């Protein structure tokens, strides 16, 4: 093979000649420092390469070495609790090599080669197996069993299987005789190209909600396990806090959090909090179910482009073991901008706002990797994907928001006005929607109560009505409204302030269990119905506002859950006493 | 990179960009020196390198450059600057030449000015709140050490006064650690630059300050390096010498215009309003240099100042800034017209790091509740004031009227303060309670009843 070398450098994009035979998406090592790059264009024998590290100082003429492998991630025990950059370099280990700052040309293996895991085989000699078969298992944490699966593209007969015992990820645990008669040595460590979805048997319909403990989400605009959601909003509207809340409290088994082109301090915040917080489901530290990808805004832009693929591939790997995985990508707009930047350097024909014409299809391909599935080994697993979108100027008509909305099934629209009033989560109830609400109704009826669907639609209608009334108030003032409408406005305020507002920083209210959500909704709904009837009987809105039971309903969120247990029946009673006339 | 090479083969000059032919091995980002026939020397940097050609951006601009006789020397190294403790008290040009009559700085170290990304695992999460003495900031948008908190302003608004007041008053409770101020001026007027320098010297801050000045009539492209020089100096002071450094950078909009000029000269496809698609990444390479590093005593706090063209917060410069920084302080022309100083428009303001910096043991236990309640009340007051402007106050309820009273007093007594008035956290919060006590207790639904018990001063409630 002739020596390939660099002929052009512009920022993160490099061209090299004498690259005949190279593959698209093949990893190459660029320059004397062997910076990691990936081929993103081929033309005759010239390759265009995006480089995942800072190219300062690289000159034409420096060598380019091929790896013969597509950009891949390492998969195996030890992924949990790790923090990686966009191309799966372990940041803690890089810190041990280069200190407090990330310098060029350093690398470390994604998975520790020293750490031993207790492997229990589940195959025996002579068995014939195919891709995705269970080879054995490893307890990765106290609660998470890591199933070792045969890589999807292999099959054969078990020649030999390792005994139960302690192994590192690169020791052979299976000797597989394949159809060509060669024996393949299989380790717990596998590689998978990030841009290729891992195969499954089939997609399955979603059946249950992903409970997040956030009232406006679970009760009004729910997402399902295996679902897709987008959180667009201007800066400071609360996208990251929503993503963090979901990473903390959603009832998935595994969390993959991708910080794509966002702030360093936000990653530091996760690293500070997650080891100390306890998963309400398993009572284990949250970090033990989490994999972090942190490619912050000041880290190389090409690695930002790769980071979402790195994340989703790791998510698929745990899904294939039968887990419910939730992936948060904050922010998909930075990923799209990275595509735009690279595309611009390639001098491709730009589409809308300078984004490449393939923006929509890239976004669709990514969200398509979400879903509930039957895995190759016959398990049921799921990936839920929640993507933040950062529209320039907060204008939702821009290409990334619009292309995303065409794909995802849940839309949590964050609103600058609400954020300015410190109404958090600043989810705009008039714009947001969930296409899963009918799907999750049976779950809620079973776990909350039979009225869920009705109460939800009544309360959403109440907010809609409030909006109409407010337009009238703008013209005539509040005092001229009929009593009934005044009361409607008061209940809508109560609903917003005591149900929809939920501080992520309140020690109690940060997570609201579904049962409590249902009961809070019940109390407000009942108050609405009773009060409505009372107004019909001649009571004034101001009179109702003054009832002690009204004040009772105003601070339910931060009330400790145990206290709420007895508060709930007492308040139901108080409601009936305060409104002896009953409902209509 | 290879060592020194010299070429006299400029083949094209376009705006701040020139193309040099004949060179095969220019390094990306390599520093070049451009030598003019009259002996003037300008610095530049390689933006693109190919076999036989390098594209160079010239910081001093390309005026008087001549294709035939200009020589371009490739230095074989990335852009660096000498740093030392002696920089304190000194004034430099926008490209780090001393302009205060003093001699060159004797370097203790050469540092690359583009800096390196802090490994996120090595970041210490910033939590030490800074008392700026300004209620609208301390009470509602608390600043912490290691934060990047820009001021969004407009022409004619008193952002310089505010920045100077913060610089003067800022302190951390129970700490007397060494501090420094780094001031980077990009494209500001002589008058504004003078204002800062005078203010620093009057208050004795000068001895702790390093000043880099690129003024409105200095070369525009130089603005691309000025903040990087300033931040490199700041990193040295903070992370090598352990000082707490406050970096004031003004005006980010002028910096972005310089980026746009380079991008236009390269005929790149722009994103919004002609600004390059990589402006987010570029601004992040400045702003993300704020922070704290585990195990190192110092910190870098950034206070970038930018003017919003047309007072438009959705303009790419404030917009991309807001997406990177940890909040923003927004100034309002309307409050300024009403004579309120500082004219801080609280609704769009935010400090994302406030939460970790306040509360029991840091500021005061009631701080978070009080701030949230003030926000709710202020937003409602503003909404009602808007309503009254249309329909008059006939139709208002008694409670609504309380909100209007609150609105007026809040803007004058809480947001408004004197230019030399520093309020402690306690004073700020006490003032807040005085105003919240306008309302009956029932209205204070964002405050834990135990704090209402402790601090509420109203009559009946
Ligand atoms: N649920 C919440 N409870 C309390 N405060 C919140 C909540 N959501 C958001 N906030 C407040 O809003 C601030 C901004 O939120 P966040 O950082 O999530 O915005 P963002 O939309 O991610 O902005 P950017 O696009 O700039 O990253 C937070 O720092 C916090 O103070
Ligand atoms: Mg965010």
Question: Can you put this structure into words, describing what you see?
Answer:
The complex is a heterodimer of chains A (584) and B (461). Helices cover 34% and strands 23% of the residues of chain A. In chain A, a hairpin with a 2-residue loop joins strand 1 and strand 2. In chain A, helix 5 crosses helix 6. Chain B has helices spanning 135-138, 159-169, 190-203, 226-240, 252-265, 279-287, 316-324, 333-337, 354-357, 367-391, 398-415, 425-436, 449-455, and strands spanning 5-7, 10-14, 17-21, 30-35, 41-50, 53-58, 71-78, 80-83, 91-93, 109-112, 129-130, 143-144, 151-153, 179-188, 209-215, 244-250, 299-307, 327-330, 350-351. In chain B, the strands form four sheets. An eight-stranded mixed sheet of chain B has the order 9-15-14-16-17-13-18-19, sandwiched between helices. A seven-stranded antiparallel sheet of chain B has the order 1-7-4-5-6-3-2, with no helix packed on it. In chain B, strands 8-10 form a two-stranded antiparallel sheet. Classes of the chains: A alpha+beta (584), B alpha/beta (461). Bound molecules: adenosine-5'-triphosphate and magnesium ion. The site of magnesium ion has 4 residues of chain A, from helix 3.
């Amino acid at each position: 093979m002739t020596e390939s070398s660099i002929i052009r450098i512009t920022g993160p994009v490099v061209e090299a000649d004498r690259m005949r035979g190279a593959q698209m998406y093949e990893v190459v090592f660029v320059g004397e420092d062997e910076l990691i790059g990936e081929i993103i264009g081929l033309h005759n024998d010239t390759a265009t390469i995006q480089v995942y590290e800072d190219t300062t100082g690289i000159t034409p003429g420096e060598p380019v070495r091929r790896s013969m492998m597509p950009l891949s991630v390492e998969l195996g025990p030890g992924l949990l609790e790790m923090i990686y950059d966009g191309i799966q370099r372990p940041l803690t280990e890089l810190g041990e090599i280069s200190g407090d700052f990330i310098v060029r040309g350093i690398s470390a293996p994604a998975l520790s080669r020293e750490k031993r895991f207790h492997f229990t085989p589940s195959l025996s000699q002579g068995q014939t197996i195919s891709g995705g078969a269970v080879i054995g298992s490893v307890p990765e944490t106290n609660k998470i069993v890591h199933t070792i699966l045969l890589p999807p593209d292999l099959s054969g007969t078990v020649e030999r299987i390792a005994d139960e015992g302690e192994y590192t990820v690169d020791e052979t645990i299976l000797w597989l005789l394949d159809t060509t008669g060669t024996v393949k040595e299989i380790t717990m460590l596998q590689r998978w190209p990030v841009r290729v979805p891992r195969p499954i048997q089939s997609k399955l319909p979603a059946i249950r909600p992903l409970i997040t403990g956030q009232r406006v989400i679970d009760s009004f605009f729910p997402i399902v396990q295996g679902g897709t959601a987008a959180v667009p909003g201007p800066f400071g509207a609360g996208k990251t806090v929503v993503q963090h809340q979901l990473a903390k409290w959603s009832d998935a088994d595994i969390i993959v959090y991708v910080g794509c082109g966002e702030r360093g301090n936000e990653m530091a915040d996760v690293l500070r909090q997650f080891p100390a917080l306890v998963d309400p489901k398993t009572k284990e530290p949250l970090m033990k179910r989490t994999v972090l990808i942190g490619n912050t805004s000041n880290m190389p832009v090409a690695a930002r482009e790769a980071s979402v693929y790195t994340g989703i591939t790791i998510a698929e790997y745990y899904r294939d073991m039968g887990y419910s995985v939730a992936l948060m990508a904050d922010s998909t707009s930075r990923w799209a901008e990275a595509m735009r930047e690279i595309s611009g350097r390639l001098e491709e024909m730009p589409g809308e706002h300078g984004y490449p014409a393939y923006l929509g299809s890239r976004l669709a391909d990514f969200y398509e990797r979400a879903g509930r599935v039957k895995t190759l080994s016959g398990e049921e697993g799921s990936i839920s994907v929640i993507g933040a979108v950062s529209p320039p100027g907060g204008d939702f008509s821009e290409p990334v928001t619009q292309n995303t909305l065409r794909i995802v099934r849940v839309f949590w629209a964050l609103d600058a006005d609400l954020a300015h009033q410190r109404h958090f989560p600043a989810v705009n109830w008039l714009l947001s929607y969930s296409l899963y609400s009918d799907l999750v109704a049976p779950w809620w009826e079973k776990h909350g109560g039979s009225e869920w669907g009705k109460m939800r639609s009544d309360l959403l209608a109440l907010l809609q009505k409030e909006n109409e009334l407010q337009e009238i108030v703008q013209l005539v003032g509040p005092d001229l409204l009929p009593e009934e409408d005044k009361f409607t406005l008061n209940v809508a305020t109560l609903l917003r302030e005591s149900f929809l507002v939920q501080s992520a920083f309140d020690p109690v209210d940060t997570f609201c269990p579904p049962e409590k959500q249902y009961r809070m909704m019940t109390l407000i709904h009942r108050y609405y119905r009773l009060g409505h009837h009372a107004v019909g009987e001649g009571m004034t809105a101001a009179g109702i506002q003054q009832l002690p039971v009204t004040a009772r309903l105003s601070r339910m969120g931060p009330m400790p859950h145990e206290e709420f247990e007895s508060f709930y029946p007492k308040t139901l009673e108080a409601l009936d006493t305060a409104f002896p006339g009953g409902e209509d | 990179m290879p060592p020194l090479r010299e070429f006299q083969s400029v083949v094209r000059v376009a705006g701040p960009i020139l193309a040099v032919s004949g060179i095969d091995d220019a390094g990306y980002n390599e520093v070049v020196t451009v030598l003019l026939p009259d002996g003037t020397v300008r610095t530049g940097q390689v933006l693109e390198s190919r076999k036989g050609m390098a594209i160079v951006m010239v910081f001093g601009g390309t005026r008087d450059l001549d294709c035939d006789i200009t020589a371009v020397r490739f230095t074989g190294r990335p852009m660096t600057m000498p740093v030392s403790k002696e920089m304190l008290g000194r004034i430099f040009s926008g490209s780090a030449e001393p302009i205060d009559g003093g001699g060159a700085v004797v370097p203790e170290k050469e540092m690359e000015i583009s800096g390196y990304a802090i490994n996120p695992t090595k970041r210490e999460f910033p939590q030490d709140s800074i008392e700026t003495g300004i209620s609208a900031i301390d009470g509602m948008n608390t600043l912490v050490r290691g934060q990047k908190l820009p001021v969004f302003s407009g022409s004619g608004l008193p952002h310089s006064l505010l920045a100077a007041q913060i610089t003067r008053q800022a302190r951390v409770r129970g700490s007397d650690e060494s501090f420094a101020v780094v001031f980077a001026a990009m494209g500001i007027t002589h008058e504004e630059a003078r204002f800062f320098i005078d203010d620093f010297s009057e208050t004795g801050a000068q001895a702790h300050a390093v000043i880099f000045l690129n003024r409105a009539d200095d070369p525009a492209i130089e603005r691309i390096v000025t903040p990087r020089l300033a931040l490199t100096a700041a990193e040295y002071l903070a992370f090598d010498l352990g000082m707490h450094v406050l970096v004031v950078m003004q005006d980010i909009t002028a910096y972005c215009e310089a980026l746009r000029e380079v991008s236009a000269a390269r005929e790149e496809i722009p994103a919004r309003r002609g600004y390059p698609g990589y402006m987010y990444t570029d601004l992040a390479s400045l702003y993300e240099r704020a922070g704290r590093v585990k195990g190192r005593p110092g910190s870098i706090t950034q206070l970038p100042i930018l003017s919003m063209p047309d007072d438009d917060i959705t303009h790419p410069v404030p917009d991309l800034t807001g997406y990177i920084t940890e909040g923003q302080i927004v100034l309002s022309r309307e409050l300024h017209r009403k004579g309120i100083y500082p004219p801080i428009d609280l609704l769009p303001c935010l400090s994302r790091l406030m939460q970790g910096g306040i509360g029991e043991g840091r500021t005061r236990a009631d701080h978070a509740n009080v701030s949230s309640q003030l926000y709710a009340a202020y937003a409602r007051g503003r909404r009602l004031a808007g309503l009254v402007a249309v329909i008059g106050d006939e139709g208002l309820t008694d409670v609504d009227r309380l909100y209007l009273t609150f609105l007026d007093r809040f803007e004058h007594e809480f947001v408004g303060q004197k230019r030399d008035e520093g309020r402690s956290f306690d004073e700020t919060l006490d003032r807040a309670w005085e105003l919240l006590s306008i309302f009956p207790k029932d209205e204070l639904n964002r405050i834990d009843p135990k704090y209402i018990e402790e601090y509420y001063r109203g009559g009946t409630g």
